[in-house]
Write a structure and sequence with these properties.
This protein is mainly beta. The chain has one domain: Nucleoside-specific channel-forming protein, Tsx-like (Outer membrane phospholipase (ompla), Chain C). The chain is 0% helix and 58% strand. It has no helices and 13 strands. It has a twelve-stranded antiparallel beta barrel with strand order 1-2-3-5-6-7-8-9-10-11-12-13.
Length: 255
């Protein structure tokens, strides 16, 4: 998931130790972690499907600043569902992506970035923890500030290996996320997101909303709910955190 409250400004002009949450929403923002700095996003999501089946997912995203405009994303999920290894915790597939911020403050695009990514079949397919496919995805990201409201718009597409029996060969995603302050360090986020119809999968759309709280410049928390609008999107509750772990490089080489 992503957050709608990061800044797309060049990382060298902001506090590199301040968090730039990309959760809790599905959307991501155009901002990137400063060079040499590391940020961890960790969460939990409790889903209830239309047939009453319940599951738990812990999405993890480790973000590493490669340059003033480039960020490496290492993403994986920890899963628990009755259909996966009898309800035991399992590791899902690993995704590696690189976000590159192309332009800032463009009149039409705002802060604009691209995020190409590869998902590898590292999860145990036979146990239901992975799709058994290698996926290539490309996400287009536009962020802008509308007064106190941070708006993030994403459009993405994914192409998968395989015959489509485990997951659709091609899929798309769209998101519109809005984050805004409420009182002091308390904020709020609201998002519409969806997956258009594709072979073997009906279209889905959902609404996500909940509070965010910045406990320290380097630590933020979130919680909320996801309500389906159409399709098989499950009802869900979520909670998580974003933690800027600091600089891995000698201080003179960070930023």
């Amino acid at each position: 998931m992503a957050a709608g409250q990061g800044s797309g400004k060049d990382s060298v002009v902001r506090d590199p130790h301040a968090v730039q949450p990309e959760r809790p929403t599905v959307a991501t923002h155009a901002g990137t972690v400063a060079r040499g700095w590391v940020e961890l996003e960790e969460g939990g999501e409790w889903d209830k499907s239309t047939d009453g089946t319940r599951s738990f997912t812990a999405p993890t995203n480790l973000k590493i600043g490669l340059g003033s405009r480039t960020q490496l994303n290492l993403m994986f999920n920890i899963l628990r569902a009755t259909s996966v290894r009898g309800g035991n915790l399992s590791f899902g597939d690993l995704t590696i992506g690189v976000k590159y911020r192309i332009v800032d403050d463009d009149r039409l695009l705002g802060d604009f970035a691209i995020l190409p990514a590869l998902k590898f079949p590292t999860g145990q397919e036979s146990a239901g923890a992975g799709t058994g496919t290698t996926d290539f995805s490309l996400l287009l990201i536009s962020s802008r500030q509308l007064g106190p409201v941070a708006m993030d718009l994403n459009i993405g597409a994914t192409r998968r290996s395989g015959d489509g029996s485990r997951a659709p060969i091609a899929s798309k995603v769209w998101t519109a996320s809005f984050g805004f302050p409420v009182l002091g360090n308390l904020g709020w986020v609201a998002e519409l997101f969806g997956y258009p119809r594709t072979t073997g999968m009906a279209a889905t759309a959902a609404f996500l909303t909940g509070p965010t709280f910045t406990a320290r410049d380097w630590l933020a928390f979130d919680a909320g709910v996801i309500a389906p609008i159409t399709g098989a999107q499950p009802k869900a509750a979520y909670a998580g955190l974003v933690w800027n772990l600091g600089c891995l490089l000698p201080r003179g080489r960070c930023r």
